[in-house]
Amino acid sequence: MTATAQLLAGQATGGVAVRCTGAVLLYPLLEGDVVALSGVDLEIEAGEMLAVLGPSGTGKSTLLSLLCGLLRPSAGEVRVGEHDVGRMGPRERARLRATEVTLVPQGVQRSLLPYATAAENVLFATGPARRAGRALPWGPLELLEALGLAEVAGVEVRLLSGGERQRVALAAGVATAPRLLCVDEPTSQLDTAARAAVVELLRLVNHQLGATVVVVTHDPAVAAAMPRTVTIRDGRVGAEGRHGEEYAVVGRDGSVQLPPDLLERFPPGSLVRLARLAHGVELVDPTWGGEGDPE
Amino acid sequence: MARPPSRWRMVLRGIRWRGAASSFLLAVAAVAVLAAAAGPLYLARAEQSILDAVLDAAPAPTSGLTLLAPPGPEPPLAAFERATATLPSPGRRPVYGAPIYGGLLGATGTVGPVAFKGSLLARTGICSQLVFHVGACPVAADQVALSTRSAAALHVGTGARLSLAASGAQLSLVVSGLYEPPAATASYWWGNNYFGFGQGGIGARIELDALVVPFATLSGLPPGTPVAYSADVPLLPSRLTVGDVQPLLGEIGSYANTVQASDGLAVSTGLSQLAAQAAHEHHLMAVVVAAVVVQLVLLAVFVLYTVVARTNEARAPDVALARLRGYSPLGAVWLALREPLVLVAIAAPVGLALAWFAVAAIGALALPGGLVGIGGDTILAVLATVAGAALAVVVAARSLLVDRGVDGRAARPTRRGRLGALAGDAVAVVLAGAGLLELFTTGGLDAGRTSPLAVLAPGLLALAIGVVAVRLAPPLGRLALGWTSGSGRVATFLALRQVFRRLTVLRQILLVTLALALVSFALASFVVSSRNRAVRAAFEVGAARVLTVDVPTRDNLLDLVRQADPGGRSAMAVEEFSSPSGVTLGVDASRLAAVATWPAGLSGEDAAAVGRYLSPRVPPVVSFRGDSLAVVLDVRGPLHQSWSLSLNLFDQALQQPYQLPLGNLVAGLQTLRTPLYGGCADGCRLESLAVAWNNPSVNGPQTATLDARLLGMVAGSGPGSARAVDLHLGEPGSWAGQGGASVLGTAGPPGGAALALRFTDNQSTLPATAGPVLLPPEIPAVVTGQLASLDGASPGNPTLPVQGLDGNTLNVAGRIVVPALPRVGADASLVDLDLLQRAQTDATAGVTDEVWLAARASPAIEQKLEAEGVSVVASQSASVAARAANRGGVALAYQFFLYAAGAAALLAVGTTLFTVAASARRRRGELAALQAAGVPARVLYRAALLEQVYVLGAGIVLGVGAGVLASALAVGSLPEFSTVLPGPPLQLGLPLGLLGALAVAATIVLLLVATAATRGFLGRLSPALLRAEQE
């Protein structure tokens, strides 16, 4: 058992279940409102580990902001455990982030104070939890040592390598022993070894702490390491993968989003016929003339 | 193992991380604190300076203590010693110097034919104050020391014995030494003129300088002799601090009661009046300084707000991370505020120390007095400023509290936020307008009155103008954008777009406007104030330099000065004398314009015209010198009555009138001769020829007439020296008759002319006389309004009486009326000295002789005067008086305003630098993107520079404009002097040339700073910067 596992073992706080029902988010911007999420339906069980996939700009990071209570849904419902995020005030949502939910955003500059040392960043991250009276199982130096970051504990973050910064960011994320850990693109710009270390750390947090882990990623390796993936397209969950199998998700309005490869076959505006089968439905191109065809 | 993390170390790391912004913020906060603390510190230092200036300027008897003993022969030295041993001493520090005991007794005497009067004077330490020409200071009771001129007048020397009568007592004293008459203005003499030699007039006893005796002489007098004893105790101003004054006044009160009760000594001092004068000046200064400090502090706080608001972008990630970590909104607020607040807290002692050093440095250069401590009012000012700065930090950081998502995007400004900003601006404009209105309605900006609060005008005006300009800029900018969008002027288009679309950029205009308005106003008020003080100082002195002189008895100062300065451009003889009808200044009017201070606007005419007015053309004086005189007359005969001729003369040296009988007249041509008995050895003026009919009968005819021709007059001093006296007979109107005499006409060529005269004697009291015309029909005078009104003179009837040199009343015509006259003030008249001397019929009485010198006067003039025996008793200089005036409260207040304005200018320059630096990173990205889109780098640099040109140009134009406007409105309302006394009209013209130069200098400096900053901070533009931005 690694030092990390030893430290995390026995500190299990248990995960928290997450449920999004028709979650909508509008960004009011200078240029006009932008629909970031247009009705996300998603259920995550307590202690589950999940990767959120999808093209850029489809709302993955926004979804994490909702789950962490940084933003409130414009419509629909987002529940984190017993908390209805949409009904929580700023102070309650802050308390939620302080004690139960942690987000490690994309880019170190958003997750760490670049001028502070690694240990000071961990201290900074645990401030609200301590103020809320939460007894933390470890101190900053202890945690960093367990995560193999003892040598950089007193070094300012701006002086660390990309991999070290990412691991320090994750250390700050788990410092409060959260029940829901949301991580945004944890492996971008990391080399293979660093990427593996990060994924391993996420697994340990999930296994030893029992925390629910949601990871937004473009990295196929990270996605492959996750037992479950959901794909966000056009502001809603369009597909889901479980144990290597990919599924389309039927939307609230009955729509089903085609995967990108099928969109080439059936471009928008194409007419399709639904053929009912015993175990499902077949999508039939009425213009198809036979094997080898079209055209 | 790393050391445990610390929250405060993290804060310090954050401050270091944002080094440039932190440094500037610290600097601005320090300037704010400096401004706030400098006010009270400067006031405290200036209070000492004002007190010192008032005490230094005050005569020693006014600031010191004078103890008077009841008259008696016995010197009350024991009582004096008891009293001076327990002098008031605030804080047990002695503030009085060694006492000077004195005794004075009037005495008269005679030496040969010369009768004299003088005062026996005993005084502690007098021997060290006098320079003995011959002999030594008296030490024995029967010894006396005389001044050299007293001894000369008495024709005595050392060893001579003087017999004196003093209040019934007879003394016989031996002259032990002869001393040089000292300058009576020295503080040792305690304001008493013990050396008034010569005063008293011809025929009266000669007034001698003090007859110096030891105390033993006075104590040896019989009981009941009324000797006036006194103890003069000088104050040591350098030992008296501001804090000592009130305790000292209290102690003096009880001291006076004590010594009066114990020894019957009366104590007098003018210290309380001096303290009140200093307090008044200080109060006036305090109001000005407070108003200036408020403006500068508000400006600094506004800059602080701007800086914090502009550095929000740099601190936004920290706040976003805190929100992400679950910090409460208040916790996140604290995180956003703690760095600037820590900097403000650090700035407090830094600013306080800077203020102390700045005031100490200014004090060392310009203010007398010692270092001042940091008092409660300074601490209070610092705390108030820190609170204001903290509030500015809190308000400026509010934009950090906007909810941001994980990608850091903030919601757009709400309508409420925009309305809030508009409301804030509206409140600022309304407050500024209300402030200006208040100044107008309460007299702060009323030209008829003065108010130190008028110094608020530039801040209020600039605030209103600046805010309105910032609000009007966007719509104007849209017009300009429309004009430039199709013009192909890419740089102009980009710059205008950048300026007019960003309120934060436009706010820079407001800052520059405020700073330059303060600088312009401070400069204008300083220049106007300095100019008026210099004019007033020169006016009060009278000329660039004024020498109070002692003139040898037989010499005429007017002649001596004309001989010393034949050009007439550098020196002027003046005689000043007081009477119940005010002070009369007799000046050599032909030199008035060249020498005297005659400020523009003092009279309707300029000084040259006033000089011409004062000295109308009058025939020359007929004067001569010698020991014999002959008059040539041709009397038309035959004579049936007995007539006699006499001459009325005026001995100009002895200032004595003579009537010289020449004998009886006969018919036909005749020469009447007479010795002058030494009476005109140094010059006589012919007043008139008097012809009298020796009427033998009281019952016969009472009227007789004599016609005669005056052919000439000859004067001489011994055989062969006879010279014809120029009687100016050929000049029409140069002779006139009086009391029955008339001038019938002139016959013959000039020089050989004869004057036909007719004398009619009707036995009236007024004798028939004919003489040279000495005075014009009316003696022109310049009089003050106060004197004219007291004497009932008016433009229709300008005649009013003044006192002549001889003390006789003289009617003058005051056709020019002024508020005050140079040197002598508001109750005075100015008459030509030559006319005054022509009108003089007796010895001068109570006249002070002065020589006024122009700034250009050469030292040779004084040397020539000294060579003629003129001794300088005292000297006053306009420049010294101006320097003293510059130590007054009002002057120091405007000086402080100038320093504050300098700080405001530095803030503007610093903020310009900071603005460019703070936006450099974002601008680099934007400009790199435009460069990638094909816009040449030089166009982009020009665009960046043009932004600064527009912002700074607008700020400079508006600021200097607001400053000039505020100056035009308020300079007339600013107090120029702590006390309003009649004087020359204030010269309130604005120094427009200087203000123009200021605008040019500000433009050059700010544009140089902006250009250097733009080049420096933007660095080399390259599309590669875009990639770096992405990374």
Provide a concise account of the structure shown.
The complex is a heterodimer of chains A (295) and B (1031). With 295 residues, chain A is α/β, with parallel strands linked by helices.
Layout of secondary structure:
The complex is a heterodimer of chains A (about 300) and B (about 1050).
Chain A: H1 3-8, E1 18-29, E2 32-44, E3 49-53, H2 60-67, E4 75-80, E5 83-84, H3 90-99, E6 101-104, H4 108-111, H5 118-131, H6 140-146, H7 162-174, E7 180-184, H8 192-209, E8 212-216, H9 220-225, E9 228-233, E10 236-242, E11 245-248, H10 260-265, E12 273-276, E13 281-284
Parallel strand pairs in A: 3-8, 3-9, 6-7, 7-8
Antiparallel strand pairs in A: 1-2, 1-4, 4-5, 9-10, 10-11, 12-13
Helix pairs in contact in A: 5-7, 7-8
Chain B: H1 7-17, H2 19-57, H3 60-63, E1 65-68, H4 77-85, E2 100-111, E3 114-123, H5 126-129, E4 132-135, E5 143-147, H6 148-154, E6 161-166, E7 169-179, E8 206-207, E9 211-212, H7 215-219, E10 228-233, H8 242-263, E11 266-268, H9 271-324, H10 329-366, H11 376-396, H12 415-441, H13 457-485, H14 490-500, H15 503-541, E12 545-550, H16 557-564, E13 571-579, E14 582-587, H17 592-595, H18 607-614, E15 623-635, E16 643-651, E17 656-664, E18 668-693, E19 704-716, E20 723-724, E21 735-738, E22 741-747, E23 754-761, E24 768-772, E25 779-784, H19 785-790, E26 799-803, E27 809-818, E28 828-832, H20 833-839, E29 847-853, H21 859-867, E30 871-877, H22 878-885, H23 889-932, H24 937-970, H25 992-1018, H26 1024-1030
Parallel strand pairs in B: 3-8, 3-9, 5-7, 14-28, 25-27
Antiparallel strand pairs in B: 1-10, 1-11, 2-3, 2-6, 2-10, 4-7, 6-7, 12-29, 12-30, 13-14, 13-29, 15-18, 15-19, 16-17, 16-18, 18-24, 19-20, 19-23, 21-24, 22-23, 25-28, 26-27
Helix pairs in contact in B: 1-10, 2-9, 2-10, 2-11, 2-23, 9-10, 9-11, 9-15, 9-23, 10-11, 12-13, 13-14, 13-15, 13-24, 14-24, 15-22, 15-23, 15-24, 15-25, 23-24, 23-25, 23-26, 24-25
